[in-house]
Amino acid sequence: xxxxxxxxxxxxxxxxxxxxxxxxxxxxxxxxxxxxxxxxxxxxxxxxxxxxxxxxxxxxxxxxxxxxxxxxxxxxxxxxxxxxxxxxxxxxxxxxxxxxxxxxxxxxxxxxxxxxxxxxxxxxxxxxxxxxxxxxxxxxxxxxxxxxxxxxxxxxxxxxxxxxxxxxxxxxxxxxxxxxxxxxxxxxxxxxxxxxxxxxxxxxxxxxxxxxxxxxxxxxxxxxxxxxxxxxxxxxxxxxxxxxxxxxxxxxxxxxxxxxxxxxxxxxxxxxxxxxxxxxxxxxxxxxxxxxxxxxxxxxxxxxxxxxxxxxxxxxxxxxxxxxxxxxxxxxxxxxxxxxxxxxxxxxxxxxxxxxxxxxxxxxxxxx
Length: 368
Fold this sequence. Notes:
By secondary structure, the chain is mainly alpha-helical. The chain is about 75% helix and about 5% strand. The protein has 16 helices and 2 strands. The protein has a two-stranded antiparallel sheet. It is elongated, with a radius of gyration of 34 Å.
């Protein structure tokens, strides 16, 4: 008798365990599948499936959430809910077998939740990312940020964070941009595009040493070096490492010996730097001539800025002239740039340097 009761009790436990397991089913879930697969009634199927999803019998059952994702929300193109249900499915029972296995193009068969969810998540992500690109092209930046924020919840891809970073820069939310960049660097610390963006942000913040480090690291992780070398030329000039800047310029031009655009772009770098030094020199000169007895240091400072500006302007002019010689047709932009550099060169030499040298002589200051 005892043995008989024990067997009945064991049978009851086995029954309860099977009901709570992945093979369990309920009237709600059966009604949901019938509504969708036989009656083509997604609304009715969703109502029954959502009820089944919350039932204790399906607590460890991935089928209900997967069914909602693939057979209800995917046809509706409700990507947010589809993604949420896939997350629930993979959490509840990743190793559960699919009710409806499917074959991929390469012939392999997808049989489990763990195998299927990444495939569908990749489709959702691609859809969200493409929509982000379309919104960016339409200059709907706020909507684009919302869409790429959703993409972040689908898959952790570096493209999410680089895109979000650039969007936040576009709308002048630099704090959010830096957070995105931080995550991108964690995901792919050697990604040259991430490192390049990090260098750009550091440069804009005035952190030239850090910018240089990012650019140099990016340089060894890509074959597309031109833009990075141009940035490094600018950084090294700003850091007054002129030998390095000139060496990098030579490397850039050696790799593109017949490209007038490269010569022009290098010229623009030195033009910008020459103009910056020139503006600073003019300001110091104005202060100098307003002093009854200028100090030796102020005279030397104004003179040094003029010499730096002159050096940069000469380099810029040479590169613009090289670009002009390589151009097949006349380029008004190059002609204008050359004329501007010649004008500034003349002003520096014939006005400012001569005047500062005279001020130095009057005050018995030796210029370096």
